[in-house]
Specification:
mainly alpha
Length: 327
């Protein structure tokens, strides 16, 4: 835990962000790359939400959780990426104190919701495969709505607690954040006040927020594969793999990068390796989620095909109407 640091305390009005460790001559290339990735994240996840809303066949618990995950991914990326893109085009990369606190609050909130939704999706797959006859009773609509609502509310309170505790932290002369966004552990390392309470809360709550859901996901899949092995068949094996494969891939990407940043990093400051991992779970993973679920999911592909056919019909219909009007 951090001890009291000495220095001249000062009232902070803004922080300076070092940004991504990219050579100046490559800034334009990476700006274009990250802009395209962010637009793909927003449009891809919006498309997932739209398809689920439009197709009545997708009005099931699994796709209800998936639509919430898509919404969370849009919000999660939007907390940091637009500011990062602006800083890549700016000389003075600053962020107001209030803006930094807001960014930190929403970042923690949406990351927490992401974790809970991935856990709920694993539970949904467990019930569907291990208790198929009771699936409709266990995963009824009211229960699913309550679980998702509770996740959003709990995570907002979880984030609020960290934010309120952060407000009591003071800083000295160094207000340069060695990162591209306001990440709580990095900010605490910059502080010149006693942050032991903040660090203990991160240690305890992160165990609850990260490891318990992760253990629940692992436990769900252990039961799923145990159920498959009781009555092994090639057809059932591939059916379970196609049903759970997308979720397992998303969980691996998300948890792998988060564990790398928060638990396997040995440096006292943000290293390039940690920043790269942050880019992975903040930009790359939310962008890949729609593609992972679309490419490996027959229902989503059918809904997409139906949506494209509808769009073609509306375009041709409007073209005919405009042609008739001009004639």
């Amino acid at each position: 835990m951090s001890s009291m640091k000495r220095g001249n305390r000062t009232t902070v009005s803004e922080f300076l962000l070092l940004g991504l460790p990219i050579p100046p001559e490559h800034q334009g290339l990476f700006f274009t790359l990250f802009l395209v990735m962010y637009l793909a994240t927003v449009l891809g996840n919006l498309l997932i939400i739209l398809l689920i809303r439009m197709d009545s066949r997708l009005h099931t618990p699994m796709y209800f959780f998936l639509s919430n995950l898509a919404l969370t991914d849009i919000c999660f990326s939007s907390v940091t990426v637009p500011k990062m893109l602006m800083d890549m085009q700016s000389i003075h990369k600053s962020i107001p104190y209030a803006g930094c606190v807001s960014q930190m609050y929403f970042y923690i909130w949406f990351a927490c919701v992401d974790i809970f939704l991935l856990t709920l999706m694993a539970y949904d797959r467990y019930v569907a495969i291990c208790h198929p006859l009771h699936y409709a009773t266990i995963m009824r609509q009211e229960k699913c709505v309550s679980l998702v609502s509770a996740s959003w509310i709990y995570c907002s309170l979880h984030s609020l607690l960290h934010t309120l505790l952060f407000l009591r932290v003071s800083f000295c002369d160094d207000i340069t954040i060695p990162h591209f966004f306001c990440e709580l552990p990095v900010l605490l390392k910059m502080s010149c006040s006693d942050v032991s309470v903040n660090e203990w809360l991160i240690f305890i709550e992160t165990g609850v927020i990260v490891f318990l859901p992760f253990a629940s996901i692992v436990g769900s899949y252990i039961w799923i594969w145990a159920s498959v092995l009781k009555d092994p068949s090639v057809k059932r094996f591939f059916k379970v793999l196609s049903t759970c494969g997308s979720h397992l891939l998303v969980v691996s990407l998300f948890y792998g990068t988060i564990l790398e940043v928060y638990f396997f990093s040995s440096s006292s400051i943000s290293s390039n390796k940690d920043i790269a991992a942050s880019v992975m779970y903040m930009i790359v993973t939310p962008m890949l989620n729609p593609f992972i679920y679309s490419l490996r999911n027959r229902d989503i592909k059918q809904a997409l095909k139906l949506f494209v056919n509808r769009m073609k019909f509306y375009v041709s219909k409007n073209s005919c109407l405009l042609g008739s009007a001009n004639f």
